[in-house]
Amino acid sequence: MVNPLALQQSVAEVYLDANATTPVLPQIAEAVTHTMQAIYGNPSSSHITGLKARYILDHTRRLGRQLIGAQRGQFIFTSGATEGIQTAVLSALTAYQRSRRAQAGANEHKPVVLYGATEHKAVPQSLQHWLSVLAIDAELLAIPVDNEGLLDQSFIRQHLPHCLLICTMAVNNETGVYQDLQGLDKLIRSSNPDTLWMVDCVQALGKLDLQLDTLSIDYAPFSGHKLYAPKGIGFFYVREGAPYTPLIIGGGQESGLRSGTENLPGIAALHTLFELLLDDSGASPFQSHQVLCDYRQQLAAALRDSFPSISFNHDFQRSVPTTLNFSVKGILSRDIMDVFDASNIRVSSGSACSSKVARSFVLDAMQRPKWCSEGAIRLSFGPAISQAEVSQACQRIRQAGEALKQACMIVSDSQDDGADHRLDGVVQLKFDQHCCYLLIDQQSHQVIVIDPVAALSERICNIIRCRHYQVQGVISSDAELAHVDGSLALLNQLFLAEREVDAWGWPVKSTASDLHIAGSQQQADAKLTVGDRQLSRVGSRQPLYLLSNSLNDAIDFAFIGKHREAQQLAGLVTNDTLLCPSDDDDNQLFFNLCELQSDCQAEVFHVDVPVGTDLAWLTDSELLILDVREQQEHLMQPIAAAGEVKNVPLTRLAQFVQQADAQTRQRPLVCVCRSGNRSRLAAAALVRQGFSQVQQLQGGIGFWLAEQQRSA
């Protein structure tokens, strides 16, 4: 059977998330396979098979020492950097405990433990953990950084005299900013020669020239999977004479420093990696520093072309060339990530994953603006990347930028008049739990904005300017929030400066509403029009806004703010009215009156389309496929199927539901998105609204494609 799902499966993936992990190079994978199949002995065994394994272990250690410039001290194989960090912290704190016992009764200052404010979370969390476990009363202090991400040396100098451990990183994992290790060495040893110093070297391997014998670093953890080796293998440097306490004991491996049978296939991977990094014959796949800088410039140029309002969050002169961290004003990081993913470009947000909007603690520490922190994207590549891959990445980035322009996420001088032509009716935008609504009339090019929020102001402005909308009103259901947020006043000033409005943004001089609300003691007191529809206001303290068609009094939508009182709403709306809240913590998107009254609780149940090789849902000509991704994702990664495919993003789902006739509500349909999260929300909302044959693609397009490739 020919796969009718046109999802660019033939388009190669452009992987630009190397700071998270890297693919395994073919040479390294071959070394791992060979070791597993042919050199399977235990390095602790004394027979020939064991001695072969021991040779790989010892020779890899020699190569590793050469690579990091550490002929002295300990070189220990570990499971990765996290284990090395734990071991370093445990060793330093245990040494302090011993010295404190030896000096019992001495009048000593309360000790401090220092770590960089932009350090990977593994470091401060490890410090907190072991300080608690060992019951050490020490003050844990974050070293501030300047706006370039460089550590505050005056702060370090101030606290070093009573510091028992200082933790810094060689290269930041989010921004690629590198610290001056030579300068830090002089500072630390001139202020406190006895303090212990750990440096996280994970992102430095293969990117900086490390000569650890020339520095007084006590502990340096490394990880293999950040540089083309498998996950689960790393190594740990300990300076000669530095205190050491094993984290894992029992067996005596690694000279008793780290027990447990060595991960020989992983160590073989490091062996090949070290050989490639040390190869100066020109045969190595690793590019020179200058070539990598040129690649960065090409990628930066493509990003600037695609995103005119881009801001790079680090100084290229103070960061390794393999990391680009940027933000685009007015566009959330998830929107960029989604369209990149649809373009088969893999990047990551600059901060940890979260169900809500996450900020980058690294950029916060660097005093970057709030919008930069909330919208950060990290693009990172490995030093073995090729010119062909960079060229392809630049082409895809520009294509993604064009898709965002067509969706009015970006406004340009050459805007296509046909861009986003399907925007009509109610559009729901969300930031965190907050909902903002645009009431758009396509024919008249008019728009009303309800409950704007500052984080979405730029996007709202882009949509208005991109489509040349005439703004009829910018209003809020919460005057207090609107005052604190500031976006209501901003948008009114931008688009309705000549109009006098009240605290909710409602025109002081507005037309009386002619909406008749049968059986209600409340009456609409004023109206705004958008095309042939009218938006009427009910109440003045906590207003509700009712959207109806001017041809009749049917209320299609009620924008209820934070109202949830069924009794109050019952006199204003019917069960056919979609209720649109200003806050949506539980991701309902919208609901109706009977849900509030708890007398129409339909079972929220839908059948997941199984992930596998079954393509029946794609060959069913009666099936309606709802692609609930945003327009720019749909443009970059279209779906071809035997049935009808309709792009209905979550932002427009409310309008789709309101317009759906009885036949559509009974039609079999499947909701599809990138990961399954949005399609699950859409499917649940549709079931609640009476759609009877709803399914969703479990795991989304990404999981489905992975399963297809695995089964091929």
UniProtKB/TrEMBL annotation:
Broadest EC class assigned to this enzyme: transferase
Pfam short name (any one): Aminotran_5
Signal peptide interval: none
Catalytic activity: (sulfur carrier)-H + L-cysteine = (sulfur carrier)-SH + L-alanine
Domain Rhodanese: 619-712
CDD domains listed in its UniProt record: RHOD
Cited InterPro entries: Aminotrans_V_dom (IPR000192), Aminotrans_V_PyrdxlP_BS (IPR020578), PyrdxlP-dep_Trfase (IPR015424), PyrdxlP-dep_Trfase_major (IPR015421), PyrdxlP-dep_Trfase_small (IPR015422), Rhodanese-like_dom (IPR001763), Rhodanese-like_dom_sf (IPR036873), RibonucZ/Hydroxyglut_hydro (IPR036866)
Cofactor: pyridoxal 5'-phosphate
Transmembrane segments: none
EC number in record: 2.8.1.7
Top-rank taxon: Bacteria
GO molecular function per UniProt: cysteine desulfurase activity; iron-sulfur cluster binding; metal ion binding
Keywords: Iron, Iron-sulfur, Metal-binding, Pyridoxal phosphate
Similarity remark: Belongs to the class-V pyridoxal-phosphate-dependent aminotransferase family. NifS/IscS subfamily.
Official protein name in the record: cysteine desulfurase
Native species: Idiomarina xiamenensis 10-D-4
